[in-house]
Specification:
Structural class: alpha/beta
Number of helices: 19
Shape: elongated
Number of strands: 7
Largest sheet: 5 strands, parallel
Radius of gyration: 31 Å
Helix content: 40-55%
Strand content: 5-15%
């Protein structure tokens, strides 16, 4: 064995050794078919850290026996890419794995594009960011995009057992015993990151002395020391952040308290109080709205309390707000009505303000017919009088369509009905 980390040494020798990602590399799936046909196209692999982006790239190169080079879009410069291009000219084709491809600057991009067009370089871009958000369209349009998923515990266990039994790259020549609960910790606490699990296993093996029977015995305590609890990937500016926020709001909208609390917990663990507060306030008015208008005021109160308290105590008012919003009746009628009005305005459906509603507080207004024949509602019984308020062009438009999910809006709906022509 060389001095490279175990995760590096255990990279697959060919496409059939890849663990997980069977939706891409399983038989008759897209990447497998490209490799089988030896007809590769440039691609972007995106997904969380440690799920096999580099492994797939190296496996493709080894299986197709194609020259393979690995660069980083941030660390390596244009000169490094020129060297790869020269090698491609000599060998006929090079597979270039470009880590952090979303950070590729314009100069490097412009250099690469002709080589992608003529096929001398097959680009495999690796990124943890959603390529539809983060990667320049010029590169994205020349690549197929594949999303990699976090590995399941069974996949991680398969990778660890392979490393334990591999005599060439792993620890098959040593007598290593891993307790069941230790293996469970490695497979579940890595959060789908096989690289973390493999390197933690290697640390456990190298730092544990053989016992009297010549066995390296890995216990749960050792496993916990070598792999501290790895929390979910959550970059506040990254794709995962917006996915969690989206799931948070949709869970509250769907009245699933347990799911909403789960996603709230993820956002709290990420320390993202600003996003939590903003999203809760939006939910109170967008999703609960007129069905329970008092929820908005109580949500704002909870948010202000959370801001004053800070974490960890902030979680207490936040939990109250989330549970109330989840179990409140839901109505989006208010903002949908406004959106419908705005849509008409953008389409040119507006028209002149009726003369009797125009401002009459200036000399000469009466001569222009402004504010004439306006009926002051407070002068009438019940504070209401029938008169036209919308422009002539849209005088019969109805934007507000009440829902009857809450008692408050049911009352509004009845008044609305009584006032409607």
């Amino acid at each position: 064995m060389n001095n490279n980390p175990l995760a590096f040494r255990m990279r697959p020798k060919d496409i059939n050794e890849i663990i997980g990602q069977q939706h891409l590399v399983g038989k008759d799936k897209m990447i497998y078919r490209m490799v089988k046909a030896n007809h590769l196209s440039s691609m972007i692999l995106y997904g969380p850290p440690g799920v096999g982006k580099t492994s797939i790239a190296t496996a493709i190169a080894k299986t197709t026996k194609t020259a393979f080079r690995q660069l980083n879009a941030v660390v390596n410069n244009k000169k490094d890419m020129e060297i790869v291009a020269e090698e491609a000219k000599m060998s006929g084709k090079v597979i270039l794995l470009l880590d952090e491809v979303h950070r590729l600057d314009k100069g490097k991009q412009d250099f690469l594009l002709p080589y992608l067009e003529n096929g001398l370089i097959t680009l495999i871009g690796a990124t943890t960011s959603n390529p539809y958000h983060a990667i320049n369209p010029a590169i994205r349009s020349r690549c197929q995009i594949f999303e990699l998923k976090s590995l399941e515990p069974d996949d991680i266990e398969q990778a660890l057992n392979r490393a334990l039994h591999d005599k060439e790259r792993g620890y098959g020549n040593q007598n290593v015993q891993v307790d069941l609960d230790a293996m469970l910790h490695f497979t579940t606490s890595c959060n789908g990151d096989v690289r973390s699990a493999l390197n933690a296993l290697e640390l456990a093996i190298l730092s544990t002395d053989e016992n009297e029977e010549g066995v390296i015995h890995i216990t749960l305590d050792i496993a916990e020391q070598c792999l501290q609890q790895k929390y979910f990937s959550h970059d506040k500016d990254g794709d995962a952040h917006y996915d969690v926020l989206s799931a948070f709001q949709k869970s509250i909208r769907g009245s699933d308290v347990n799911a909403a609390l789960h996603y709230l917990g993820r956002l709290i663990e990420a320390g993202d109080l600003v996003s939590i507060n903003r999203r809760l306030l939006v939910i109170a008015y967008e999703d609960v709205g007129l069905a329970s208008p008092q929820a908005g005021a109580r949500t704002l109160s909870a948010i202000e309390s959370a801001e004053r308290l800070g974490f960890p105590e902030a979680r207490i008012p936040l939990a109250n707000a989330v549970i109330e919003l989840c179990l409140s009746p839901k109505s989006n009628s208010a903002y949908k009505a406004l959106d419908a009005a705005i849509a008409d305005i953008k389409k040119g459906l507006s028209g002149d303000v009726p003369n009797h509603l125009k401002d009459g507080h200036y000399k000469g207004a009466a001569k222009l017919g402004r504010a004439q024949n306006y009926q002051y509602p407070h002068d009438f019984e019940n504070g209401w009088v029938k008169q036209q308020y919308l422009p002539d062009k849209i005088k019969n438009k109805r934007y507000y369509e009440p829902k009857r999910t809450g008692k408050f809006e049911q009352a509004l709906a009845q008044v609305y009905k009584n006032l409607s022509p």
